[in-house]
Amino acid sequence: MYAGFVELLLGDLDRAKTLFQSATPDWLDSNNRDYTYSMQYFGCMFSWVLINTGDEEKGRQLLQTNTAFLDETLSARTEHVDVHKPEICYLTSGDTEKALQSIEKQLAHNHLEDWDIYHKLPMYDLIRNLPRFLAAVEERERIISEQRKIIENMNHEGEL
Length: 160
What we know:
This protein is mainly alpha-helical. The chain has one domain (2-159). It is 67% helix and 0% strand. It is built from 8 helices and no strands. The chain has helices spanning 2-10, 13-23, 40-51, 56-77, 87-93, 96-108, 115-118, 131-159. α1 (2-10) runs antiparallel to α2 (13-23) and α4 packs antiparallel against α5. The mean pLDDT is 87.
């Protein structure tokens, strides 16, 4: 799955598709859906790849299943669904409002990790230049800068 993710980042959709399919062959079997706690965002990446390589029907079905898992099952199990990058699913479906809400929730919960990687995915093109997205990225940078200063001060205090 991670190799498929990397190929998607690099723009090789055919290779990403092959890797996602080999890593998770049961995702396309509607009778056998075994979802783990953190796989839905890979499923939504795979959905995006399928939709954009000519398997739109399979991609939409997988997207619907993953989004339902995210919105119904996962949200009943955890308070912080936003840590699972639900905006990948929402962007794949074209729902920019829910995607932006998810990103803003991540920001509010200080779930700031991996933004520099995930936000390079092609589905983020839908929001990459929107003011709300740019404001969230700017706020994340401000928070990280603040955290760095705190750590620097802690390091200097330890030198005394």
